[in-house]
Amino acid sequence: MEIYHISDVIGLLGLPQPLSGRSSYYISCPCCDDNPRKRHLNVNTAKDVFRCPRCGVGGGVIDLYSLYTGLPRDDAKVELANKLGQGCFIPSPPAVSLPQECPLTDISTRHETYSALLRMLSLAPDHRDNLLSRGLTEQEIIEYGYKTAPVIGLSALAKRLQENGFYIAGVPGFYRKGDGSWTFIGQDRGILIPVRNSAGQIQGLQLRRDDTSKRKYRWVSSAEKPDGCGAECWTHLRGPVGPSIILTEGPMKADVIYSLSGLTTLAVPGVNGLSHLRDTLLQLKSLGLQKLKTAFDMDYVSNYHVQTGYLNLYALLDDLELSYSTFLWDPRYKGLDDYIWEYLLHKSRET
Known about the structure:
The protein has three domains: 3-89, Zinc finger, CHC2-typedomain (DNA Primase, Chain A, Alpha-Beta Complex), CATH 3.90.580; 107-219, Alpha-Beta Complex (DNA primase DNAg catalytic core, N-terminal domain), CATH 3.90.980; 236-350, Dna Topoisomerase Vi A Subunit, Chain: A, domain 2, CATH 3.40.1360.10. 34% of the residues lie in helices and 18% in strands. The protein is built from eleven helices and 17 strands.
């Protein structure tokens, strides 16, 4: 029986091939690279694994196909078997040079632990001003759970959570230090953004970093740390489920759009980070969703990388038999949230 390798999937997906003689190379990460010139996803054709050290996404042959097609892993395996023939997919061995990680724990545990963590933190005045300047109200800022990322006392936070009975193994962001004690990942100063499912549970955290124009948003992840855990490309929903929902990129953007317009908004990390979208849409469809209105940043008009992601998105929506349309607005405003906020400000000045 023929054994299939990650190089077979690379060819099927049309991904960049390694230079001659090389087995380990980097390509653009569909979850966290917002520019095709950025390459943070490592592909190792000798070990048949891939991993992005920044956002934590990784896996083996089937996982790579699932990541780029948006198919659940089981469906990806079936589709690959149909395309490549009934061969044998080799397992995904752990990289021996990396520390042993914890498997991702369940959503209820993550929600309880993250909620407790956020209650221990505060929101700096400049971060509150930033959120207010986007159109969020004081009450919404509190309700949505925004906090300033901790930069000191990280081990104390982990210890306090454990003393209060919260489980931190398998929660992205937590890991063990050399002495065996737990701590929280050190990161740049910024705003912590809870990423929630349709039930309002916190699946993971994103960080909006201060004082940077590139890679401003990143997942809170402890991938490749001892007993750490990587984040995934979770979706984020703000508002009640109805027949029509806006689809955009970024949980903060979804929060602002909903707050300003009252329109329920679903967010993916980016148009190329669709690995969890299928399952989310299937769930929302069972709750009455019929149509999506896409509202990705207007740079899709000139960004080939984003246009490719759009094609994958439309194929997914067609497969799920969901109708869709696209919001268009003045391209001087990058996002729909920016455009709505400017419109509301303009109206308030007129009155």
